[in-house]
Amino acid sequence: MSMKRKFPGLENFPPQVASRVSREIISLVNQPPDGIRYLQTDDGIMSEIHAHIAGPEGTPYERGEFHVRLILGSDYPQSPPLGFFSTKIYHPNVSLKGEICVNTLKRDWNADVSLSHVLQIIRCLLIVPFPESSLNDEAGKFFMEDYASYAQRAALWTRIHAPAPPPPSEDSCKASRGSSCESPTGAAAERGCVSPGGGVKGGADRPTKVLTPTGKTSPSKSSKVEKARDKHKQAKTKGLKRL
Fold this sequence. Notes:
The structure is a single chain. The protein is of the alpha+beta class. The chain is built from seven helices and six strands, in the order ααββββααααββα. The protein has helices at 3-6, 15-30, 115-125, 137-145, 147-161, 170-177, 224-235; strands at 36-39, 48-54, 65-71, 82-85, 209-211, 217-219. The strands form two sheets. Strands 1-2-3-4 form a four-stranded antiparallel β-sheet. Helix 4 packs across helix 5 (147-161). The model is unreliable at 1-8, 176-192, 194-212, 216-222 and 235-243 (pLDDT under 50).
């Protein structure tokens, strides 16, 4: 069976692109990134990638689960996919319509960037927002000037619009799989990202790094949110370019 028949919605792509997308979808299913779960839709259209992103611990979005869509245009991967939050979220870089603003999907796009990496960057954006390129100006202003109000409102929206389902009990896991549940904490839960309250979980014996929304890693020494907020306040007087 051809890839285009196996994955409907890829008919508008050249064979090599359809093959690449199908491989990446299979990889998302079999080896999902931490905090990200691929969603198979009823229509099965593979030119739209659907996923659930778990709110990172130590952020206003923790205990939340957010539905994200990546829409692949006919010129993908030469042009980046369009990213949207289908779940309502209060975030500087997400418009009220769900549009996502991040460099990786704009001027920093590279045709070699995988769908998995794009989803990881979006999740890391929940840890380190970039309000100087905000699509939600109110959220960006609160983040810069009154972080407590920003965090309170973001957490409220998360509880209302993105409540995560309760984890399965130990007994239900044993009954269904004959083994205990794996804990979502530790290095496997936050690989590559740093929560605002500390370093990489489960990585006390290794350098602490953060995967930023530009796709690069950088050291972390203290609260990323506090440092990010201070940086953004200083940057206002320096006229940082928008993403």
